[in-house]
Design brief:
Helix content: 25-40%
Subunit structure: Homohexamer.
Number of domains: 3
Structural class: alpha/beta
InterPro entries: DUF34/NIF3 (IPR002678), DUF34/NIF3_bac (IPR017221), DUF34/NIF3_sf (IPR036069), N-reg_PII/ATP_PRibTrfase_C (IPR015867)
Radius of gyration: 25 Å
CATH superfamily of the largest domain: NIF3 (NGG1p interacting factor 3)-like
Largest sheet: 6 strands, mixed
GO cellular component, one term: cytoplasm
Distance between the termini: 45 Å
Number of helices: 11
CATH architecture of the largest domain: 3-Layer(aba) Sandwich
CATH class of the largest domain: Alpha Beta
Shape: globular
Number of strands: 15
Strand content: 25-35%
GO molecular function: metal ion binding
Organism: Zobellia amurskyensis
Order of helices and strands: HEEHEHEHHEEHEEHEEHEEHEEHHE
Strand order of the largest sheet: 5-10-12-13-14-11
Length: 364
């Protein structure tokens, strides 16, 4: 099995186009064609993690956080980032990062938090914008069914719980083939009129490459007329954060104690307690202050996240509780999620959960 074969499996779970624009995801170090001897899954790729990979003969590290985030201009070993990259290259170890691609899918980071805390029927808290696209193309009426089915098979036409969705309008198209053309229908130098179907299908942006390949391989024309536009429609299954309910309401102090225990938090920083029962819960692994307004608008009793600043706690405004459990603590179970997923997909392969400690924050 090669690096690419493994990363293709990971991208079925978390397609890279769903990562945030500021992020750095995908294969950061290594060659796609390298044969894999073992996979080590970690939250962060530090020097001790690379050492662990070497000791266990794992030449692919699957990391949630990217070790290379900003630009690297030199590799001199002066920073921990440079030392990790140098050591990985010297030992032929590939590093692949998922980060916000995994944040933004329904089976990802925040769903794992919901699972651990017993939150039922979670939905996306902040749907990602510009994830739905529309393809419009023109095809001879007699070929429309074949092309439409090829696009459906590539993933087009899926809307929520529906599939095979399209809109079709018949009309008359025209074109004149130039001297160097090789027209499928019509003659060089003569204007040709053809009964055509205008075919419209929507698709997820993660499937665009696959959709375009199906279009060009199945369309009968030498030159394919088409356009792809981004729609304002919201895909409720793609986005960051989740919100759901406990089966039974619980006292706020009792719930925070439960969160502390289940999430392995050394402590929880929180806004003013409201003295009421907790049932509707919003979660966002990692830095989640930007989700405060969305959680309030959705009627959450509490937002569980990390990296909340002093003044951001005021934004609770007596309407909900904001609880900061720690960045590492909120995301630590992500590596368990990935190990479980990879083990199911490639059961007879060496996949290890990293035992290295990577939390940079210590408590006195």
């Amino acid at each position: 099995m090669t690096v690419k074969e493994v990363t293709d499996i990971l991208e079925d779970l978390a397609p890279l186009p769903y990562a945030e624009s500021f992020d750095n995801v995908g294969l950061l170090v290594g060659n796609n064609k390298t044969k894999i001897s073992g996979i080590l899954v970690t939250l962060d790729t530090l020097e001790n993690v690379v050492d662990e990979a070497i000791a266990n003969k794992c030449n692919l590290i699957v990391s949630f956080h990217p070790i290379i985030f900003g630009g690297l201009k030199k590799l001199t070993g002066k920073s921990y980032v440079e030392r990790v990259v140098i050591k990985a290259i010297q030992n032929d170890i590939a590093i692949y990062s998922m980060h916000t691609a995994l944040d933004n899918v329904p089976e990802g980071v925040n769903n794992k938090i919901c699972e651990i805390l017993g939150i039922k029927n979670p939905k996306i808290l902040i749907p990602q914008k510009e994830t739905v696209k529309k393809l419009t193309t023109y095809v001879p009426v007699k070929d429309a069914d074949t092309l439409r089915e090829a696009l459906f098979n590539a993933g087009a036409g899926n809307i929520g719980n529906y599939s095979h969705c399209s809109f079709n309008t018949n009309g008359k198209g025209s074109y004149k083939a130039g001297e160097k053309a090789n027209p499928t229908i019509g003659e060089i130098g003569k204007t040709h009129y053809e009964e055509e179907t205008q075919l419209n299908v929507t698709f997820s942006k993660a499937n665009q490459a696959r959709i375009m390949k199906a279009l060009f391989s199945s369309h009968p024309y030498e030159e394919v007329a088409y356009e792809v536009i981004t729609l304002e429609n919201t895909n409720q299954n793609i986005g960051i954060g989740m919100i759901g309910n406990l089966e039974e309401p619980i006292n706020d102090i009792a719930f925070l104690k439960e969160v502390k225990q289940k999430m392995g938090a050394e402590g929880i920083r929180h806004s003013q307690l409201l003295g009421k029962k907790i049932q509707k819960i919003a979660v966002l692994g990692g830095s989640g202050a930007f989700a405060i307004e969305a959680a309030k608008a959705d009627g959450a009793d509490i937002l569980i996240t990390a990296d909340i600043k002093y003044h951001e706690f005021y934004k609770a405004e007596g309407k909900m509780i904001i609880a900061d459990i720690g960045h590492y603590e909120s995301e630590q179970f992500t590596k368990n999620l990935l190990v479980d997923y990879l083990t199911k997909k490639i059961p007879n392969f060496a996949i290890r959960l990293s035992e290295s400690k990577t939390n940079p924050i210590k408590y006195l």
